[in-house]
Amino acid sequence: MLYVSTEPGSSEKRPFLVAAVCLGLLCVLLLAGIIGLSVYYNRAIKDSEDKRNTLFQSFSLYKINATEERDELQTSYNNLTKEKGHIQTKLFMLEQHCQEGWRYFDSSLYFLSTKRKTWTESRQDCQERGADLVMINSRDEQTIVFNLHLNAWIGLTDSVTEGTWKWVDGTTLTTGYWGQDSLMIIKGKRTVVRYTLDKMTL
């Protein structure tokens, strides 16, 4: 008995194999393309985020610097405003004092009293005027006091510790700009100094 084969021959299978191989290669290429695009997309996103972070940091730093500069300018403005107020106050006081018998010499004001008082009374009078007995701390001030042509108390005493001369602000006398005979030391309840014009050393 003879049977007729119904299976296709090898020549008929070849086109299907070629198509399958091509389809497989196409899938591989498509997968590679997808992977490549995914890598590129992720890298692009990362670069974009890095740029955004850099811009954000730059903006934050600029904002901080701008804030600091603004605060510094505000502080400078406030200081200048205060200084202006102090200068205006000093000018007003200077005008008032000059009208009330004060004299201005080398950035300092001196009040010349013609009343005879003790050292303590003289200092109290000075303090009531917002001042104190004169302290001669430089040769220039020595010249100013000398040019006033007055015998006057000065703010020098050793009442706290005998022999240790101190000015009325508590500082210790280190240098004297006068001759020994220019000072009259008055001893009593407290040892004080009176400036005289008998002799003068400049």
TrEMBL record:
Keyword Glycoprotein tagged: yes
Pfam family membership, one: Lectin_C
Domain C-type lectin: 105-178
A molecular-function term among this protein's GO annotations: carbohydrate binding
Keyword set, alphabetical order: Disulfide bond, Glycoprotein, Lectin, Membrane, Transmembrane, Transmembrane helix
Entries under Gene3D superfamilies matching the protein: 1.20.5.400, Mannose-Binding Protein A, subunit A
Source species, domain of life: Eukaryota
Regions crossing the membrane: 16-41
UniProt protein name: C-type lectin domain-containing protein
Organism for this UniProt entry: Hucho hucho (huchen)
